[in-house]
Fold each of these.
Amino acid sequence: MIQIALILFVALTFSIVATPLARRAALRTGVVAIPRSRDLHIAPVPLLGGVAIYGGFVVALLVLGDQRYIRELVAILVGATLISLFGLADDRWGLRASVKMGGQVLAGLVLLLGGTQVQLFDQAWMNWVITLIWVVGITNALNLLDNMDGLSAGVATVAAAFFLLLAAMNEPRQVLVGAMAAALIGGCVGFLRYNLNPATIFMGDTGSLFIGFILAALGVKLRFLGNTPVVTWMVPICVLALPILDTSLVFISRIRRRVNPFTTAGKDHLSHRLAALGLSKREAVLTCYLIAGFCGLVGVYLTQARLHEAYLVAGAFAAAGMGAIIWLERVCPGGVRRTG
């Protein structure tokens, strides 16, 4: 636990120190978010906060990480670096959605080559396909979630904290998962010092794609030797249910409105709808934190549940999520509160 605490501290310290430097670099190079009609900020805000999160994560693990897991760690870091570079290019010049998707698939393939993959089926190709779908899906979910000050980094912190808890709860303890989760917590919390409303810097796609990729890798790496995979495959989904819910809400809403969900952005996310219902921006973000925390608790419960209990709880959990989507689409269609 001392090693985990040191990793968290190093990542936190690096991120706190590096974020203002990234802000200055963004202003000098013109990597800033210019306000658009769909945005909530009214003045240009520097991007590149994700560089500080990435740096804190990598430095902490390379300096203090367990060398026994170096092969797996290197593959994860190579994939994370690749996807961060695509995000950086998008922040600076803008990339087509298809190019960004290609970068995510490429990073997922690097993960597979390093031995990090889902292990649910007897056929290897099925595990590969599920792994790629999971990596691309979660990476995009965290990217889409980055729509309000402090939201994506805060939800990622909550999810990483539960991954750290789950890694410590299981025997033998999963050192690599715990170390990566601690490094991500430190990097995100250090960045949040400057990103909470009103934010002075955004993480940009550099950060959101990186965070999503790491959370996806943590979900794949986590193992539960005390329970059956027939149950435990649901645990990472529960831990990351908030970004999955947000992405599902956005896709369903845009398809219903006959809007392309891949190329169109808007104020139709969960956080926007909570604000439309009367919450302030900070209250909406804190509400998302609480929902993410509850989802993580459900995930922890599933690790100890019997088969029938697990599927009963998971079914109720999924039904609640679908009910929330239906209700939000009814009271706030497209993100605008219905008045009539």
Note: Strands lie at 32-33, 45-46.
Amino acid sequence: MGLDFPQLKVMGTVARVTGIGGISDMPVAASDFAYRKRLDGDYTVALRNANIANIVPDSFRLFAEYMPSFVQTWRELKLRIGKTFIEELSMPRNWALDQRTPFEAVRTLDPVPAHAFNKTALAKLARAYPAFSKARIVNEWAGMMDVTPDAVPVISEVAAVPGFYIASGFSGHGFGIGPGAGQLMADIVMGTTPLVDPKPFHISRLRPNLAKAV
């Protein structure tokens, strides 16, 4: 559609550990580790404030927009370059309506978890809570977060394309605010009084040109 929406991906990784007892059921988030008790009795643990940012072609294209945020959060990111750069470099950005799109070629994102991050998280937990010293990792997984330059989502109509709406860039908070975001988007689409003030989430914040009808 020829729309330029600023968004990059950041990968978070967590693990399920077992063999722990005598720990509060309350979830805990410290400066460099976090844990939450699961319904099955095990614990989900993570290295807090530590994510992986793959360097891709858009990293250079959007460099100026993301620089202010990077200056503030660089300690929380591990930059990595690999095959993802080549994959995204070769990914088509324009196609005919009868062509197979990248969205059909890649239906889900299932990144390989960062075992080193999970191992470090468990070691930090063991120092703070000795009950974790004998814990063992039984499962690991990772996920991609869609991040905007200011880490605030866009939930908005796109006036440049009548009838087109976008809700993206939740920056790791989508699971928590998803229900409210869905209600807000429904209000915007239906033209009813919005649940909350939609102005902070309007696309004009990042792309003023897309907020104007063509």
Note: The chain has a mean pLDDT of 93.
Amino acid sequence: MRIDSTMWYSKISYSIIFLIVFCWPLSLHAQSPKQALWMNIDGAIGPATHDYLQRGFGKAIEQNSAVIILQMDTPGGLDASMREIIRDIIASPVPVVGFVSPSGARAASAGTYILYASHIAAMAPATNLGAATPVQIGGLPSTPGKDTLDQFQEKDGGTDNASQDPMTNKIVNDAVAYIRGLAQMRGRNAEWAEKAVREAASLTAEEALEHGVIDLIATSIPDLLTQIDGRTVNVLGNELTLSTQQISIEHFEPDWRTRLLAIITDPNIAYILMLFGIYALIFEFSNPGMIFPGVVGAVCLVLALFAFQVLPINYAGLALLLFGIAFMLAEVFVPSFGALGIGGMIAFVIGSVMLLDTGVPGYGVSIPLIVTFALLSAAFFLLVLGMAIKARQRPVVSGMEQMVQSAGEALDDFTQQGWVRIHGERWEAQTSVPLKRGDKIRVVAIDGLILRVEPDLNTTDQFKEG
């Protein structure tokens, strides 16, 4: 019995030690004060914005943050990216606070939808939101999720649904149902949300608070955290009371990946990468073996295609742009007195204008860039590429190849094999026609160090006529 009790005490001691060593740090971690993760939405909303916010949400969940603060100053952005961000907000187990700040900022178009989707909506003084009417890109029918949300240009105090085509009505009604659903989920003013879509209505911060569009007005992030302390929000169906009185604030900034994605998906950069890639590959194909232009062109073209995959492309504009390049290239090979070249430039410019006409600031190809590349493209095809192709078509003037078709004379009489003089040099030659000393000959082929020659009939005829 004494041995059993000793073993029993030993087991208890080991259990206590285990609990102290392994569980105490976990309890300290669980009791550590939570943080508020602060992220910025600055500028047009696009694929890079969604990537940045998605990774920020993941970090907030990983470190069990108390709240996520989305500070916004945006004119709008792409519909597909906006909907992905809203899905992340709705699915987030960490409460999300949308905050239009600093003073003078706005949450227009897509920003209004994101603010409505946030668990708490706040604005700084002298800010505004609204103008959430969707705008369809012209040209071919767009793919679902590829429309853009832009500032709406109001005509005669609003839009007339009766005068709109069925496709426009379909897009507007879809946007209305979407924002009304967000408003009802968060208990905000659904009637004004519909007005923001149909009539592109806007509100100041004070008006938004008065109409029940937002929850509060705050002058700064510390003031925001003070005001939301003790509020109850519904997160994934559960009521959660916020405790934000004395928590720390961590600013999550975009890293190199987000910055690179933002650069690549900029429409102007994607446009330049596409053209540079196409021209580099054309130059490589017209001058095989250079390798460097082909490698650089392939990399640029792949990056451009990746950017166009996530951007709202008008395929009619893309087709016109490619046709323009093909016409200008054809001008080099098929002289058309400028018809193909001029037609190609016109198609190139029109296609470039239609390519990414989203209307969202920061998501369209600039006109000066289009004009510049149209002129550079014409110069590239008509001058650079034309000179390269003509240079390849010129006869060879050095090396063994230049011996073919060279003229000379026979140094002795022979029927099959003898000696000839070409360019002042003595060469052994073979012939299928008997030659006499002094006969004019022309080289037709080279077999190692032996020339295959035949009588130069033009020269012989001239001598006979003389």
Note: Residues 2-31 form the longest helix (30 residues).
Amino acid sequence: MPIDARTKLYLLMGNPVDHSLSPAMHNAAFANLALNSIYVACRVENDCIAPAVMGMRALNIAGANVTSPFKETVIPYLDSISAQSEQIKSVNTIINQEGKLYGTTTDGEGFYLSLLQVAPAYKKDQSILVFGSGGAARAVAFTLAGEGSGEIVIINRSRTRGQQFSDMLMRKTPLAKSVFLPLSEQSIRKALSRCSLVVYALPVDSPEFLEALSKMGSFRKEQLLFDLRYKPERTAVMQAFEDKGGDAYNGLSMLFWQAVKSFEMFTGRSAPEGIMKKTAGL
């Protein structure tokens, strides 16, 4: 479909964005449904998020996805946000509603759909380790807590952010137990010994995490690790976890599902999941 004055424009705002598969998925979906829309990735400098959001209003941008490092810092510049985004302080989807910008998150739902797809026997009441405290980590933990997790252990380099994260889960969800452990090889080994699901939500391979894995015995086969990164396809963390007998997955399936949910919010149409999945390489 040709681009014209009626074409709706959707953005990905983050830094970096060059690696993102979101434009390919959304544009393939627009083409499949013959929607006069286009989706482009925009690198936003760290001190420019405010004018970037104001530009959405000025240029009548129809919607946007938000990725690192802006999922939290974008919030003050929106007109309203969903209840979940308010609780976890994270937005990954913005919808322009007649000049009013509404923010919400599809990260948690996207992760949970991915989890059920690759691990249909997943038991909801298990203990879970969440490694990191960024927007995606908070969204995933919030969703898992709401789905009936028995315990969520938070490990994070910043004690303040990690403890606040743990406290939020106890206040805002039906979770029975959440604890914060400091980032250390000993804490990681302690958490890994009792957690059946590990959500790795850091942008780099943690030396402490890799060291802890190297000193662990074999995992139970049902122990799972999800590294929320999807590039590279296999990370050092994933390989080290599998070397101990666990199953490890990257974040590509999560990206696909959160994109599906964002697309449906953007357009009010059911997403062509097969087209989007093929475009993502799933």
Note: The chain has a mean pLDDT of 95.
